[in-house]
Amino acid sequence: MSDRKEKYDCSTTAVMPAYNEARRIEKTVRRTRDYVDRVLVIDDASTDETAREARKAGADVLKQSSNSGYIAAIKRGFSEADTDIVVTVDADGELPVERVPNLVQPVCTGEADMVQGHRDHIVRPSEKLLTWLASFGGPVGDSGTGLRALRTNLAQTLDLHGACICGIFSLEVLQRGGKIEEVPIRLREVEKPRGVAWQHFAQMFYVGAALFRSWVSS
Predict the structure, then answer these.
(1) Pairing mode, if any, of strands 148-151 and 114-119?
(2) What pTM, to 2 d.p., does this model score?
(3) Domain 12-217: which CATH class?
(4) Which residues form the Glycosyltransferase 2-like domain (predicted)?
């Protein structure tokens, strides 16, 4: 274990969904290992050498039998985690993993059930719209961030219905009585294509449905 790992009493697993990230995942895993006890990469049926590069960097790797998407991958990672806390990290290296100790500590001490990295900028207007919609259910913060720390036993209860995590992840934590805090983060520049996030249009339905169920049951 790297001596850069922060000294806190809770054990931690980083859950890292990955699809065709062979060019970037080795560096991301190595950086992340400095701050957690275990890196668990969920290879979403990549067609490149993602799994090999992740293992080379020291990650445990689980391979999906077919390309099932980010939510299926992250839920599998949660189900396999056996530590006190899980941390979600994207495989592309955009997220500043050096901030992980700042996310983990409040969860470890019981001050929060989940701590999110609040990004310095959000590129897609559709993501901002989803956060606005989800905020009708409470203070969801940066609801589309990929960097979070939360109690493993809470993570394993989440349904995460939808096309992506935007809006729904934070909303479900609130609906389960969880306390959310945030830590500001600055994204790294990563060269990657950014197409239209069509799944955000479908996600509005899922967030709306979750809000409706909450209002009906209250």
Answers:
(1) antiparallel
(2) 0.91
(3) alpha beta
(4) 14-123
